[in-house]
Amino acid sequence: MMQREENPYAEGKVLLINKPLHWTSFDVVKKVRNLVKTKVGHAGTLDPLATGLLICCTGKFTKKIAAYQAQEKEYTGTITLGAVTPTYDLESTPQNFKPFGHLSENDLRDAAASFTGKIAQVPPAHSAIKQQGKPVYHQARKGIAVKLEPREIEIKAFEITGTDLPRVDFRVICSTGTYIRSLAHDFGQTLGCGAYLSTLCRTRIGTYRLEDALDLEAWIGQQSATIRRDTLPRN
User: Fold this and answer.
1) Residues of the chain with pLDDT under 70
2) pTM of the model
3) What pLDDT is attached to residue 130?
4) For the range 29-32, what are the long-range contacts, defined as Cβ-Cβ under 8 Å and sequence gap of 24 or more?
5) Which of 57, 90, 152, 208 has the smallest number of CB atoms closer than 10 Å to its CB?
6) What is the distance between the alpha carbons of residues 189 and 187, in angstroms, rounded to a whole number?
7) CA 42, CA 93: separation in Å to the nearest integer?
8) Which residues are designated catalytic?
9) Is residue 85 within 8 Å of residue 92, measured between CB atoms?
10) Going by CATH, does the domain composed of 8-69+208-231 fall within 3.30.2350.10?
11) How does pLDDT run across 42-89, given as a tens digit for each residue?
12) In 3D, which of 204, 229, 206 has the Cα closest to residue 76?
């Protein structure tokens, strides 16, 4: 009698995935779960318009997700000045346009520096935070006012890495629970011209780096090929 091979993913693996643009974190988890045939979870949501490092844990390693979620994060991206959006990013249309041409490099760097350290941050109304068991973005999308309490986070670094106004490139190192969309919005409020997040990439979680992550489409192709090969009849 042939012994059934154990599923290595059920025993537990940590997969570093480079999340593509427009995929939700749940899209990635669902795709991975369908391929590896065991439970899968991710350690920290990335919005659909964000790219970069998504840690997925399979099988028994899903018990370790909280430990990965607690580690500091690093992001790079672009903030666009001179307008705001309801979602604080490009999932909604820019509005309330204001001038920004008077701002200097020093103005931008001083504003960024004002957010470093432990600060109180209000999460976006268009977020998955739950009130009465439902994500608040359901209310926000209907135009219903959402009130969220500030949360203490830590911004360990907020660097301006390039400017081509209205675009401001940045790098942020922060604690878990930080919303970069809120940081972009608050940055614009401090400058007096408004701002929204236009691109975002997560480059690091703890010691795990984006350059070590799997290209999702390539990995899916490899796994699909392996599954087809393993299901072929053997002579």
Assistant:
1) 1-5, 126-145, 225-235
2) 0.89
3) 63
4) 29/56, 31/216, 31/220, 32/56, 32/58
5) 152
6) 5
7) 29
8) 47
9) yes
10) yes
11) 998 999 999 999 999 999 999 999 999 999 999 999 999 999 999 999
12) 204
Cα(187)–Cα(108) distance, rounded to whole angstroms? 9
Tokens of 230: 């393993």
Residue pointed to by tokens 């599954």? 227
Q: Do domains 8-69+208-231 and 73-205 have the same CATH topology?
A: yes
Structure tokens at 60: 């028994």
Cβ within 8 Å of residue 70, ≥6 positions away: 176
Residue of 208, 172, 205 lying closest to 72 (CA atoms): 205
* CA–centroid distance for 152 within its chain: 19
CA distance 83 to 102: 15
- 3-class SS letters over the chain: CCCCCCCHHHHCEEEEEEECCCCCHHHHHHHHHHHHCCCEEECCCCCCCEEEEEEEEEHHHHHHHHHHHCCCEEEEEEEEECCECCCCECCCCCECCCCCCCCCHHHHHHHHHCCCEEEEECCCCCCCCEECCEECHHHHHCCCCCCCCCEEEEEEEEEEEEEECCEEEEEEEECCCCCHHHHHHHHHHHHCCCEEEEEEEEEEECCEEHHHCEEHHHHHHHHHHHHHHHHCCCC
- The answer to whether 138 touches 131, Cβ cutoff 8 Å, is no
* CATH classification for the domain delimited by 73-205, as one of 3.40.50.800, 3.40.640.10, 3.40.718.10, 3.30.2350.10: 3.30.2350.10
